[in-house]
């Protein structure tokens, strides 16, 4: 089973790129972030024509997450994170697909830091960590994937000394990610590539993609039973080089059958 995550940076504006990637790689499940579209503007028919069922949690101009599944049923189990009824951001959606609980997330950026946006990031992280603990305790096979807006270590960022004050790399953010993983989750990409420089995001500015000046901020966290089923993982880096593409590359894992 192949599961992918892709911050599309605008699902309608980049629809041709998304459809081309789906046709080329055919993941069984694709988790999308930054739809930047309200629910009624989600391009469902185009997604269906590509062979995918879909659930989505949209928001006008900002945020938005979706889960697509190829020839598989999607049983939605949660829309939005618990813990703050006043949080109006569309950043989390969860479903059961083929016996696996899949949480698709778009964690807040948090810049400028310090400040209110960074405070919101850390609060959201706390709520997510609490929910992850419940999922972990359930004993079910779980994947938590998406744009975490965190570079966990210096290996995950080009020229880390330039990022020390950034919300994605501040000590508080990295500590929050570390605490999450230490519940017992496996960072799939890093497990299979413990010492390799791997990036999932390249800014549009200063020829970042051409210089490979990137960040690893899109992650897969796996529960223990799925850790045992992990076969391979990677980044479709070439997609970042396509015309009118997102500033993220799709990231994917392959799991052996149960």
UniProtKB/TrEMBL annotation:
It comes from Mucilaginibacter terrigena. The record marks 248 as: Interaction with DNA substrate. Its EC number is 3.1.11.2. This is Exodeoxyribonuclease III. PANTHER family: EXODEOXYRIBONUCLEASE III. GO terms for biological process: DNA repair. The record marks 218 as: Important for catalytic activity. Probably binds two magnesium or manganese ions per subunit. The record marks 149 as: Transition state stabilizer. The keyword Acetylation does not apply. GO terms for molecular function: double-stranded DNA 3'-5' DNA exonuclease activity; metal ion binding. It is an enzyme of class 3 (hydrolase). Its cofactor is Mg(2+); Mn(2+). It comes from the Bacteria. The gene is xth. PROSITE patterns: AP_NUCLEASE_F1_4. Keywords: Hydrolase, Magnesium, Manganese, Metal-binding. The active site is at residues 106, 147, 248. Residues 4-248 form the Endonuclease/exonuclease/phosphatase domain. Belongs to the DNA repair enzymes AP/ExoA family. The keyword Mitochondrion does not apply. Mg(2+) binds at residues 7, 34, 147, 149, 247-248.
């Amino acid at each position: 089973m192949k599961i992918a995550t892709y911050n599309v940076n605008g699902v309608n504006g980049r629809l041709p790129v998304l459809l081309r990637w789906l046709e080329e790689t055919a993941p069984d499940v694709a988790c999308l972030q930054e739809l930047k579209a309200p629910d009624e503007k989600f391009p469902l028919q185009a997604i269906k024509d590509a062979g995918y069922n879909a659930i989505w949690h949209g928001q006008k101009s900002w945020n938005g997450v979706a889960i697509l599944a190829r020839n598989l049923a999607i049983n939605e189990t949660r829309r939005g994170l618990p813990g703050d009824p006043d949080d109006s951001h569309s950043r989390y959606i969860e479903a059961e697909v083929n016996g696996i609980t899949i949480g698709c997330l778009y964690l807040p950026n948090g810049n400028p830091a310090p400040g209110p946006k960074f405070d919101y990031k850390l609060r959201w992280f706390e709520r997510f960590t609490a929910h992850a603990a419940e999922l972990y305790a359930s004993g079910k096979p779980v994947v938590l994937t998406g744009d975490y807006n965190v570079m966990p270590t210096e290996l995950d960022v080009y020229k880390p000394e330039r990022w020390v004050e950034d919300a994605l790399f501040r000590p508080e953010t990295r500590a929050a990610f570390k605490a999450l993983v230490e519940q017992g989750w496996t960072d799939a990409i890093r497990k299979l590539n413990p010492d390799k420089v791997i990036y999932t995001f390249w800014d549009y500015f200063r020829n970042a993609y051409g210089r490979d000046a990137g960040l690893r901020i899109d992650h897969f966290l796996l529960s223990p039973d799925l850790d045992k089923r992990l076969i391979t993982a990677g980044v479709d880096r070439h997609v970042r080089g396509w015309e009118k593409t997102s500033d993220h590359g799709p990231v994917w894992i392959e799991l052996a059958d149960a």
